[in-house]
Amino acid sequence: MELPIAESWKIKMVEPIRKSTREEREEWLKEAHYNVFQLKSEQVYIDCITDSGTGSMSDRQWAAMMMGDESYAGARSFFRLKDTITGLTGFEYVIPTHQGRAAENVLFSHLVKAGDIVPGNSHFDTTKGHIESRKATALDCTVDEARDTQLELPFKGNVDLGKLEAALKEHGDRIPFIIVTITNNTAGGQPVSMENLRGVRALADKYGKRVVLDSARFAENAYFIKTREAGYADMTIKQITREIFDLADAMTMSAKKDGIVNMGGFIATRHEDWYEGAKRFCIPFEGYLTYGGMNGRDMEALAVGLDENTEFDNLDTRIRQVQYLAARLDEFGIPYQRPAGGHAIFVDASKVLTHVPKEEFPAQTLTVELYREAGIRGCEIGYILADRDPVTRENRFGGLDLLRLAIPRRVYTNNHMDVIAVALKNVFDRRESITRGVRIFWEAELMRHFTVKLEPAK
User: Fold this and answer.
1) Is 124 a catalytic residue?
2) What strand order describes the sheet that includes 379-381?
3) Which residue among 23, 83, 166, 264 is least enclosed by CB atoms within 10 Å?
């Protein structure tokens, strides 16, 4: 009999968590204005709001932190991190930042101006926010297949090359660069194929544009290329990673995901002119060039994390856990974006809460119901996150409306996945009785989902 596959690590330290009562959760939801971002962490039993900065660091990472050089300028920890990044990506120029949105802020401050159009595949919330706050347009060129959550395709995060070329032809000089998100978070954590990246590169070269990769989950994307795309089965994750970045000109990175650190990020590029331009914004926004928004000890931990998480076994353990949760949901007939992505399950709220009108935000309603049921905190990736159209100020209802259950790296066991699955089944079983959602009574102009205040719709 073939042995089952267990985790590629063993547990050395634990943190206690407590269950709450339904009565407590009802009161906490009211106090949080039905926005789970506003809950206190001790009010949460299993926390799947994000995989960003919530992973568990390894013994090697904790040991590396003791070697941190906190020199203001020229810290050896920066050069160790830079060497690791350059080795993985081939990018010579590196600017550390405190997280991914800071990397976008620094780079986009140099590259994006009012009236620009930035095409890509389902820009994530911070990316879109940084573009739209500069009075530019984030143009979604994701393949149409990503909109059908029940369609099984290996690379639903791909850029539609026809849409991209049409944009390049129509908008020409208004496009400062093309951005590709790997994996495509907003579309359900779906990967982008190497073939598609080559196609984007060919169009970029044809029209004289550069390519930026939003690389928060590049290692998971490399895993899917290895396991799903012909010709890559025998290559290592590090080899695939290098091939990915050979097709790009620059990257922004939230290291809180595939770097497995609690805080950190960076910009890396092969072009000195972009580096020189971004430098002007790093110092006033983040800090000096050899620490940016990071301290030495965290740069040391990140260097180790990038090395560890570009090994197959670590990724295989992580992604198999997401697939385990998907298999449990399959048992209960709960619809999600298929196939399961690398970092999360994205439940299709529009297919679960069919009686809740879109104006009452089904995915946010499902998020609230799951927390009410079992103290499990997910995250709406849908109509609230989509913000309002910057011109018409109407809610954007054109995309997917999903409940994301992001799984922190090396934190929970499959027993926790079982709890999530059964709690979601309990909500699913009473879905016919959920006919009203929530309404907004206060919101910020951009990236409203973090702070929005809601109340039950009447």
Assistant:
1) yes
2) 344-348, 402-406, 379-381
3) 23
List the domains of the chain with CATH numbers: 22-51+312-456 (3.90.1150.10), 59-308 (3.40.640.10)
Dihedral sign of CA atoms 219, 222, 224, 226 in order: negative
**Segment holding 246, helix H or strand E:** helix 237-246
Residue 125 designated active-site: yes
Told to judge if 83 belongs to the known catalytic residues of this protein, a careful annotator would answer: no
| The one catalytic residue among 69, 125, 298, 348 | 125
256 among known catalytic residues: no
Distance CA(196)–CA(206), nearest Å, equals 15
Let me know if 208 is exposed, middle or buried by CB neighbors in 10 A (0-12, 13-18, 19+). Answer: exposed
- Out of 98, 130, 257, 343, pick the active-site residue: 257
* Kind and range of the H or E run holding 86: helix 76-89
- Per-position DSSP letters for 218-234, written without gaps between them: HHHHHHHHHHHSTT-TT
Whether the ω angle into residue 236 lies within 30 degrees of 0, i.e. cis, is no
How far apart are the C-alpha atoms of 215 and 271, rounded to whole Å?
17
Whether 324 is a known active-site residue: answer no
pLDDT tens for each residue of 348-398 = 999 999 999 999 999 999 999 999 999 999 999 999 998 898 889 999 998
Q: Structure pTM? A: 0.95
Percent of all residues in the chain with a pLDDT value above 70, rounded to a whole number: 100
CA angle, 365 then 396 then 353, to 5°: 25
65-115: per-residue pLDDT in tens? 999 999 999 999 999 999 999 999 999 999 999 999 999 999 999 999 999
Which of 59, 63, 72, 246 does the annotation list as catalytic? 72
Structure tokens at 11: 């547990």
Catalytic annotation, pick one of 216, 222, 268, 386 = 216
Q: Choose, from 34, 124, 275, 291, the residue flagged as catalytic.
A: 124
Rounded to 5 degrees, φ, ψ at 144 are -65, -25
321: buried, middle or exposed (CB in 10 Å: 19+, 13-18, 0-12)? buried
69, 214, 298, 401: which one is catalytic? 214
Which residue of the set 82, 128, 256, 449 is catalytic?
Answer: 449
Which residue reads 């009161």 in tokens?
27
Four-residue CA torsion sign, 88, 94, 100, 106? negative
Rounded distance, CA 141 to CA 8, Å? 37
